[in-house]
Known about the structure:
CATH class: Mainly Alpha
Protein name: Transcriptional regulator
Number of domains: 1
Number of helices: 6
Oligomer: single chain
Keywords: DNA-binding, Transcription, Transcription regulation
Domain HTH arsR-type: 1-92
InterPro entries: ArsR-like_HTH, HTH_ArsR_DNA-bd_dom, HTH_MetalResp_TranReg, WH-like_DNA-bd_sf, WH_DNA-bd_sf
CATH architecture: Orthogonal Bundle
Strand order of the largest sheet: 1-3-2
Largest sheet: 3 strands, antiparallel
CATH superfamily: Winged helix-like DNA-binding domain superfamily/Winged helix DNA-binding domain
CATH topology: Arc Repressor Mutant, subunit A
Number of strands: 3
Amino acid sequence: MTFEKLADTLKALADPTRLKIISLLRIRDCCVCELVPIFNISQPAISKHLSRLKTAELVRETRKGQWVFYSLNEKRLAETGLALSHLPDLSEHLKKLEEQGLLVTCE
């Protein structure tokens, strides 16, 4: 996962309401109408949060008649955790600074 994609995914998760939605979707798929009373915010507000999570590919939507159900994209969530635990080694940047005498030491 690129730094840009990872950052976008983390931005989508950087909201308490969206994190709670993710937590609920780990239990089961939910419809917007079920989430409204849980969060006590408007349907458009819930839909906006879900849209942001969908854009980050963290949730999927499935239409069942007139209802839209949202489910957690477990694969994307796992990829995000894996990406965080395997960030590339950028120590060469610090070595270059050290070679140039630009490393700061606080003593």
